[in-house]
Amino acid sequence: MQKQKKTTARKGLQLIHLRDFIRLMTVLLFLPWIAWVPETIFGMEPDFELEVAVMLMFVVFGSFWCGWICPFGNADYFISKIGKKLFPSMQFNLPASVDRPLRYLKYLFLAGFFYVIVSKGIDYFWGDHMIMYKATPFTSAYIHAKKALILLVPLLMPRFFCKYLCFQKALYNLMNRLLPLTTIKRDTSACISCRRCDKVCPVQIQVSEKETISGSDCLGCYSCVDKGVCPEKADALHISFLGKKVNPLVFSLAAILFYYLFTWSVHTITGPLS
Tens of pLDDT along 120-143? Predict the structure, then answer.
């Protein structure tokens, strides 16, 4: 029994290390000073956050982008880990009476950005989406506040920006509800209501109360389907793609490969964004 526990713990530790490595690599890819690598080797400097590629990711792979590739989401993840080490007794989440209405705030920001994109004629999907943030005082203030909030708030409250202020997450929530190709499924007949999945969710989704999770602020981090979370005797949670159960590691690697290959292909055909 003790040997089995050690083996399970070792597998979980390896998964955590792999997850952190993948997220760290995606953070590095978005840093401006790292751009000389593809420019020197391949002769072009791609924009790794090409919005049409991000949109396709959400259509095909659900919220995977938020949990694994988004540079701000990954920065939040690592800063939260630092905060838990430095200030373990100061960690908190907002009470439900404040949390629930505040989550709708990002939809107001979505409406505001939609107006800016349409009124200014910004090519949001194929062009340089950073132009959008320079378009008005509102959008400029938003991006500056976003950077400050990501660097500071996660030290005490993880995923604050993702839950309440990210207008892109609001859009992706709507997309995943309309096109739920990738979801997290809970087998209600196998679930033993231990609620361990609820405790590991970084955005406080009540996983144990849902049959399907898609578009409900889920970040696609897959913490709830990690080994050792759902008891082996239950095995009630899994990732579902087109209604079929898929292996989390294989699915994750396929999603990452798809994103970067698609991004490179667009830049190969169209050249760097102006």
Answer: 999 887 777 788 999 999 999 999
- Within 10 A of 89 (CB to CB), how many other CB atoms are there? 5
Quick one: DSSP state of residue 90?
G
Of 226, 202, 200, 206, residue with least CA distance to 70: 202
CA distance 43 to 41: 6
Sign of CA dihedral 42, 43, 47, 51: negative
**Residue 106, C-beta contacts closer than 8 angstroms, at least 6 positions apart:** 163, 164, 165, 166, 167, 169, 170
- What is d(CA 222, CA 251) in angstroms, rounded to the nearest whole number? 11
Q: List, in sequence order, every beta strand (DSSP E) within the chain.
A: 182-186, 212-213, 237-241, 244-246
- In angstroms, the Cα distances linking 144 to 126, 133, 149 are 23, 9, 9
Q: Please name the residues in contact with 251: beta carbons below 8 A apart, sequence gap of 6 or more.
A: 61, 239, 241
Q: What pLDDT is attached to residue 72?
A: 86
Q: Is 246 helix (H, G, I), strand (E, B) or coil?
A: strand
The per-residue pLDDT for range 186-196, each reduced to its tens digit, is: 999 999 999 99
DSSP 63: T
**DSSP 8-state secondary structure symbol assigned to residue 30:** T
